[in-house]
## 1
Amino acid sequence: MDNINLFIEKITTLELNTFTRVLISILIIILFFIARPLLSYILIKVFKIRDSNSEKIKKSAFYKPLKIFFAILGIYLAILFLGVNEKFLDIVNKAFSISIILLITYVISNALKPDSIFLKPFFKRTTLNSDPKIIKLITTCLRAIIFCIAGVIVISELGYDINGLIAGLGLSGLTIALAAQDTAKNLFGGLVILLDKPFALGEWIETQNYEGIVEEITFRSTRIRTWDDSVATIPNSEIVNSSVVNWTKMNLRRVKINLILEFKTKLKQVCDFTNDVQVLLNEYDIEKDSIIVKFSDIEDSGYKVYISFKTKIKKYSDYMELKENINYKIMQLLEKNKIDLAYPSQTIYVKK
């Protein structure tokens, strides 16, 4: 800035009338407006911001801001050449400085977009590349910080007391923070969900109060499509502070069946039935090592037979179909072995 002012000061000392100065100032503006595409192109090519392909250079994030910069510079030099008074010159200098600050902020903001050529290589080297929501959150926060810094610099450039402003904002910020505690908790909860990834879109989860398929995850809440086809919107803070069961991530489904046989059932019938069930389960596509068929307990109302196995079937409808088929077969085996199931009952003996 000082070098430019020194150069202009030397030119303005030349003995020129007002008409000539105005004419030269207009020519300076026209010259910069005509030359700005070429100057921007040469500058990007010299510093190798993009490769030598002219189309790619024109699509560069720096090409448009550089054109704006040269246009502003031309207008600034033209005004300086006019030899205006000091009061107006101070206003022009401040306007030029603020314009440059805003232009630099615009360039940095563009460079911090998710699809930026500067950030893409960085995200590709991390696990964040697989989650666009996290990338968007990070870049949004970075751009917000840049805008805040630019705002503080502009306010300082305008001559305002930054310390007093920060103190005032501190009190206002404290009031807002107290009023927005729940919102802040939900935003933090959303960040935790996106980073920790306890579940993803389309997965079947169960929370303390809801169960269903995850339809949407935002920074404030998570939406679940429940089994009765309603949509539950749960605040992220509630999900983070409670346990979540992700049924989609289970490797095997476990099936448990408890049968109570009547006391009149003979021991041989119980033994034959358990053996038949064991053979039956081996015919299905289930984990053979997980099959358990045992005469486990003697209950108040009869003999308890415990049946358990695991299957790789994850789809709920297929899982229920498997259970139904096995239940039908077990009922057939009960009929085959002439065994009746017991129901809760008590026998009372009266002593004469």
Note: The first strand starts at residue 204 and ends at 206.
## 2
Amino acid sequence: MADIGIIGAGTWGSALGLLLSDKGHRVTMWSAVEQEVQALRESRRHPNLPDVFLPESMIFTASLEEAMAQKELLVLAVPSIYVRTTAHAMAGWCKKDQLIVNVAKGIEESTLMTLSQVMEEELPQAKAAVLSGPSHAEEVARGLPTTCVAGAHDPDTASRVQELFMGPFFRVYTSRDVLGIEIGGALKNVIALGAGIADGLGYGDNTKAALITRGIHEIAGLGMKMGGNFETFGGLSGIGDLIVTCASIHSRNRRAGILIGKGYSMEEAMEEVHMVVEGVHSAKAAKLLAEKYQVSMPIVEQVNLVLFRGKDPAEGVKELMMRDRTSEGL
């Protein structure tokens, strides 16, 4: 069994900590907020996972040094907007060849870097990996069957992540296409906002299917232009994650989109959801990447206009429907 540090005590970090603890690993979970650490120690429950008990064997700490010391694996589980600052703070205690798997999904807006690229820049001495796929924390914490993909440039690194996480209810595949995995994971949140907006407008299953299908077309078009593999976008971190995020009641991106479709502003929707809505932070980056690589991404473009320019969502749908006639491949 391994000593594992979870850097980030949010819903996803807590669910993965429970998964790893149930496998017999020794888990230490870190939060920057001392009050959160104390509440988790006392209640053994996360507020967003109220029916799930976090075992007494799990250690909670506000000390990064304690969370990182003598750990075979570190799981970076903070929201995407905090990955750089957290990784920077970790640098002083990160040993050479430390295995770190990032489980957040997003693109850094200021640099257009993927999160593993950010992690590699801040922690060049570490062995970086990613874990992604259709995996809502609420279901993983309940032990419902889930499949993900572990990505790393080094096959042995991906295989070790697979070995540490895989169990009867959590199946893990491996891949060397780290870029493709991360582009799929980040951009599906943007498309899910669009799917939620369509739900909020009262549109039906036909609309949802169209958004998912054309959405993965946009994601794959950009991802392959950037160097990702086509097969990745047809896999768990591509179409798999996109389907679950566009359709699930657990999806915070879809929930925010529903509110926007009903007339809420972007700021009002984010406040109502009470959690980080990753798609809002990735939308601008996705648009900038589309421009940089000269890839047509009309859904991403319309989502940006609705989020940041106050465009009427119904008008955005109309413009998508009335684009110039073309073949399906374009």
Note: The first strand starts at residue 3 and ends at 7.
## 3
Amino acid sequence: MKKMILMAVAMLSMSAAFAGNEDVKAVRKAYNMNVNYDRLAKVLNLTGDQYEAVEYVHDNFCNEMRRASYASSEKRQARFEKALRKDLSGMRSVLNRDQYRTYVMLLNVTLVNRGLK
């Protein structure tokens, strides 16, 4: 019993040491990029084909951002930038010029509001 308690204390102290001063929940919340696709489609005035393509590209972006949120603080920024470049290049190929400009504006506002940019 004593060994189990000591092991639990050791595990908790190791996880606290790895977490450092960073609030893990706040980081995960900031990197959560899930959106309401119906609202996005309405704002961007998407066609049916564009809707599916935007959903696919943005789902990939959400997954990459989730992975970035789990990365160490040293690697997080690089993963964030890579995910952002990949999302923007995917959206550029799917959306027309006006839709793309609106999407970039919405994404920038979201990133600024979450403290990522």
Note: DSSP finds six helices and no strands in the chain.
## 4
Amino acid sequence: MLKHRGFPGRLPGSEFQFTIRRANPKGATRLVARERFRDRRPADRLADAAFLAALWQQFGDAPFERGNLDAGRLSWLFGREVVAAEDPFDPESYEARLRVDEGRARAAFPDVFS
């Protein structure tokens, strides 16, 4: 499992995790597109925005390996702002390649790109 050096481990001052410490011996947690409803807590929306900002700062629109990025946090953006960068895509692989869809990310989180 690739560890992304310099990537923040969590949202400062919170319990929202951005990375994991070690690989799960049973395999990576499956990435699924989670539905974001309008009534989500402001802290959850802040965590999504901060995670997307960290992804954009670290990788830009270039493809990147999933590695030690937290599956739960990725799943809130997966299928919309973060998309598969390879075909076929294995959602249960630490080596899976992803990329930030800049157009959709700018539309959903304009504050991150301003």
Note: The chain has three helices and three strands.
